[in-house]
Amino acid sequence: MKRKSLQGFININKPKGLTSFSVIKRLRRFLPDVKLGFVGTLDPIATGVLPVCIGFATRLENEVVTTSKDYVITGLFGQSTDSFDSTGKIIDENPYDHIKEEMLEDIFPSFRGSKPQKAPIFSALKQDGARMYDLARAGRHIEPKIRTVELFEIDLTFFDLPRFTLRITCGKGFYARSLVHDIGLAFNSSAHMTDLERIRSGIFGIDSSICLEEAEKILERGDVETILYPTQAVLPESIKIILKPKELQDILNGTEVELLGNVINEGEKLAFLDSNNLLVGVGIFSNGLAVPNKVISNE
Hints:
Blueprint: E1 8-14, H1 20-28, E2 36-38, E3 46-54, E4 69-77, E5 79-81, E6 90-93, H2 101-106, E7 113-118, E8 126-127, E9 130-131, H3 132-137, E10 146-160, E11 163-170, H4 176-186, E12 191-201, E13 204-205, E14 210-211, H5 212-221, E15 239-242, H6 245-252, E16 257-258, E17 269-273, E18 279-286, E19 289-295
Parallel strand pairs: 1-14, 3-12, 15-17
Antiparallel strand pairs: 1-3, 2-3, 4-11, 4-12, 5-6, 7-10, 8-9, 10-11, 12-13, 16-19, 17-18, 18-19
């Protein structure tokens, strides 16, 4: 695949201590002429699945299906911090000896479902156009944001006071740190997160991920295709349409085309492919026509 047309995803297993942007910076050394991005920020304290977007894939974050993610979270009872995790300053300490394993499991139903959640002030959310963690570090007053998030599943996998480990499945925008903090409050105690591993993001799982150092070695050899997920593979909700030459030209020009011989429902998402099975655009089916929304020629 030519560097100009390179596109897809690399499933990176992010190490602890790096920001998501640092991962991109390291990979960019080997792909200097290609756009790079990622789906779903991981804080420096976190490890695990970080899907890295390459080329046209960087424009498709909203189309990529990552509606649910799985995490393994380790928490510590007895102390709360200003960041809700172990990187922050301890701001409160409370007894925790009264907390039992069965008590912890009994409160899980109150956290499942769609609920309002207070985000940590040390977060990438914005206030007045600035990242909240930048404002917090500068000592500015911050009004914690409360957003509706969804927790699908929560299970206790380890309990030995003061430590406990959870495995959760959640939706977009969910803060694991806030969950641990709120669990501490539920027992009139305190708690903060000490470790976080994302083990799945959409179709990307930890078992199929590649460590950053190994990815760098592969990229240095010029073998990026061996670890690249095709862009269309992460668009399972889209109907794949292989375009004929005239249709391809029209789609690349942003022109609607009639798809003869295809049975497609109104409003269906479409993924447009060329004869080489390369994704060239995405769109929807409307009023009997394929309508392109984003095409590769507009990069």
